[in-house]
User: Which sequence fits this backbone?
């Protein structure tokens, strides 16, 4: 099978990806949170302890530290995250989901909406979709420059993120 991004089929796929991205963003306004706050909750839930820092979240999202800091501070104020001193860095903090944060994540609108159609796929369909989505994410990360004053560091390739699909 020859890969081609040209023509009507390629345009249809691009339009479908755009539509999905808009739907995903739109459902992120739920339970009194904004999409960036859901991203942060998912990130801290899915990350190893050593990566549950402001800097690591900013690197993951390829955005400035200031908005990440505001997002996380809001989640702490809402009682969804707790912070504790980072054992390896004097001025660093580690963030953990609180019981309320975990309970809210159980009602994650993204996982509730996308979980059923993904669960309805065969394992091979899920594997193909995951492979293709990782390829798209990696391509976009490689070609999308980070903001000039974003936290410097490469974002791990999508394949290394091992994020859950459903």
Assistant:
């Amino acid at each position: 099978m020859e890969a081609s991004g040209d023509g009507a089929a390629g345009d249809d796929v691009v339009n479908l990806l755009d539509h999905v991205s808009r739907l995903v963003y739109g459902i992120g306004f739920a339970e009194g949170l904004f999409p960036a706050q859901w991203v942060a909750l998912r990130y801290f839930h899915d990350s190893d302890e050593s990566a549950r820092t402001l800097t690591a979240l900013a690197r993951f999202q390829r955005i400035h530290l200031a908005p990440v800091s505001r997002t996380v501070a809001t989640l702490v104020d809402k009682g969804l995250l707790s912070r504790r001193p980072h054992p390896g860095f004097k001025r660093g903090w580690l963030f953990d989901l609180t019981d309320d944060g975990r309970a809210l994540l159980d009602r994650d609108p993204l996982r509730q909406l996308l979980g059923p159609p993904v669960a309805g796929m065969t394992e091979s369909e899920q594997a193909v979709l995951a492979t293709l989505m990782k390829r798209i994410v990696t391509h976009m990360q490689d070609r999308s420059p980070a903001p000039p004053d974003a936290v410097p560091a490469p974002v791990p390739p999508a394949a290394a993120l091992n994020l859950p699909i459903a």
In short: Residues 153-160 have pLDDT under 50 and may be disordered. Residues 7-27 form the longest helix (21 residues). The CA atoms of residues 95 and 133 lie 28 Å apart.
